[in-house]
């Protein structure tokens, strides 16, 4: 058995882990992938345990933070039109909130915009389904995060029979065109489908029911949805099959191990930001002249 | 010389630090306080060094996070109308951005709304000065953070002669009435005025000028404002004298030591949240019955 120091977490450099590009490749949806057959306990691209995964994630947070600050700084120049939109979907208790807290939470709040989409309010329901979505798009230089999204207007609409089949079926095309227009306008759309096993969900819902400080996270409808497990699997499969595009790819992330999902999503975000080639913007002033002015003002 | 372990930060329990209520009392503005005379290197309520301060801050983050989650959870019940609004003001480089990153950044992004107010855009300038402010108010259950705020419509308006004196002078009353209406509607307004010395500002601006990755944080107007140091001191004093109210108090926070300002502001936020008496909300379901349903669904 390997001997580890008690306090210092093992350095991630010692752990075989796939590069951001490689992790993205491994988890990217591809035609023919059977969503229901994904091993939800797997850790593609990471050969290490929970402790090593957490340590690797902490180190990656620094990389992600640096990239975010570059994205933000460039937008300040006024001539930069890029943003990133992370869309999180998955069953109840699959860990979407945890990703917001632990992945997005590692970033400076200045450049982040989080929107959680619940059951539409009366005002939202009286508009086109993309109305509330457009209002929450990230501005340039920001990372936007959707905790649930316009995909609920297909998924929940279908499962809860909120609209006739003809309506939600027509939304695949609408969503594809919408996301293409985002990409055309400089918003890099990264879609993550978290997937957990039925057993793992039972454990998580049980935890919410057994702890009074977690009751607020539970709704009886969570169990009703769970009883429709297979129908949901089919609905997720259809969403993946019909809306995975090069300009807005889906990543299917095994999420029984929370630490893995967080590590993997961080790497996917790093991959997408690295492709933006984010150099620090140059100022529109002469630093030497400004330093002289500064000295004169002492 | 004291011997310290190399890795483990000293526990804050060993360091004499004032309670959240006491820190709030110490830093709270009071009539007669001379803003220009505040010792910007002081650490009221904390008897320890930077390392101890950072360790104490890390521990406090846990407390603040717990309170924020309770605030957020209560709002989910739909019968709860409380929020907190943190207003950050201070000279250029006084550390407002750092507070957003390190104090607010410790919270789950779900329940936080950060708004940075810059020079008004054309659209903003064509509206009442509170128009853009109202749009960024936190919803109930959230902590809102204003990095600069409606006070710029008094401060910048005055210093840069953007409007006639009669106009910005009239805004003290407008702002007081506005903040009173927020308090009446359940929004706890906490206003923080960070204060640094002229020497410390020179060091920070120099750092921004000497590092290419910090140029984007610098604007030549920062030095012009610095050259009006005393006039700004007077403008800050007037804001404090005229807008410090029980329903929307100002806290004057010495900020030459960044670690101190962050620790102190965290304690002030904890103090305000603790006064809200945030119990965990009870669910509108029977946990035992739901657990039975859950078991049946396995």
UniProtKB/TrEMBL annotation, chains A, B:
Protein known as: Polyphosphate kinase 2 family protein
Record-level Gene Ontology MF annotations: kinase activity
Pfam hit, one: PPK2
Matches recorded under Gene3D superfamilies: P-loop containing nucleotide triphosphate hydrolases
Domain called Polyphosphate kinase-2-related: residue spans: 64-277
Highest taxon listed in the record's lineage: Bacteria
Lineage, top ranks: Bacteria, Bacillati, Actinomycetota, Actinomycetes, Micrococcales
Keywords of the record: Kinase, Transferase
Native species: Brevibacterium samyangense
């Amino acid at each position: 058995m390997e001997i580890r120091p008690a306090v210092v977490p093992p350095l991630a450099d010692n752990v075989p882990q796939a590069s951001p590009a490689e992790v993205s490749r491994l988890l990217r949806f591809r035609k023919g992938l059977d969503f229901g057959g994904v091993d939800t306990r797997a850790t593609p691209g990471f050969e290490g345990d929970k402790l090593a995964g957490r340590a690797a994630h902490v180190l990656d947070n620094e990389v992600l933070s640096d990239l975010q600050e570059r994205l933000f700084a460039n937008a300040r120049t006024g001539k930069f039109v890029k943003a990133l939109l992370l869309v999180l979907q998955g069953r109840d208790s699959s860990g979407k909130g945890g990703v917001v807290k632990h992945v997005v939470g590692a970033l400076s709040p200045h450049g982040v915009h989080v929107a959680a989409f619940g059951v539409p309010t009366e005002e939202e329901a009286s508009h086109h389904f993309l109305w509330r979505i457009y209002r929450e798009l990230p501005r340039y230089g920001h990372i936007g995060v959707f905790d649930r999204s316009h995909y609920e207007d297909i998924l929940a609409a279908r499962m809860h029979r909120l609209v006739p089949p003809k309506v939600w079926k027509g939304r695949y095309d609408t969503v594809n065109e919408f996301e293409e227009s985002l990409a055309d306008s400089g918003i890099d759309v990264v879609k993550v489908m978290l997937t957990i096993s039925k057993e793992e969900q039972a454990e998580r819902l049980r935890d919410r029911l057994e702890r009074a400080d977690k009751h607020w996270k539970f709704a009886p409808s969570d169990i009703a949805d769970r009883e429709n497990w297979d129908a949901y699997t089919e609905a997720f499969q259809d969403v993946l099959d019909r809306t995975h595009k090069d300009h807005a790819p889906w990543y299917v992330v095994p999420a029984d191990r929370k630490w893995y999902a967080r590590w993997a999503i961080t790497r996917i975000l790093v991959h997408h930001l690295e492709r933006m080639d984010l150099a620090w913007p140059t100022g529109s002033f002469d630093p030497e002249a400004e330093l002289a002015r500064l000295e004169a003002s002492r």
